[in-house]
Amino acid sequence: MPRYDVITFDCYGTLIDWESGIADAFLQAAADDGVTFTREKILRAYADVEHRVQAEGYQTYREILRDTATRVAKVLDWPITLERAGFLAESLPEWQPFPDTNPSLERLVNAGCRLGILSNIDDDLLAETRKHLTVDFDIIVTAQQVRSYKPGHAHFLTARELIGPSRWLHAAESNFHDIVPTNVLGIDNAWINRQHQPELPGGTPKLKFDDLAGLANAIV
Q: What pTM value is reported for the model?
């Protein structure tokens, strides 16, 4: 196992259980209108819509969440206004870490690793999420800072400038958003494949684990 000085993470889906956050927000908002959906139907529609909204050009992540919620609601035959679609961003500060997140991050810090977050998020929303995390992060790169969304390369190029010659590993759950572009850029990566998804073309990781505990076990 190579030794790394710096480990950066995608946040939502890797550190934070964003699927539960998204599904719960939709279920609650729809229930307020007397409408019901299955968790699976919500997440399937969301996965299909969000990356297309991001690809249309930079806007704040609050706007991405609003537009995505509006389009997902339309797919679900639950039309809502743009103003009402703010429920998703409003819920984000309450999205919780996976059970293994904080113990694994603490082990890495105690082993001497510097940590970072590279996230498709706004600064203020990430600040609220960090209140749920029990360690500090030396490197923070957000979509708001670089005005771009992964799988674009701006997050990784900015992080490379900040990290310099230190030995660096990037760990993430999304093969599409993180593993494929870090392969292109020659950045060592670890795929946290929580959902046991197949690799995409160009998405073979250097390391692969089922969760963050597996990563911590390998490094510590």
A: 0.94
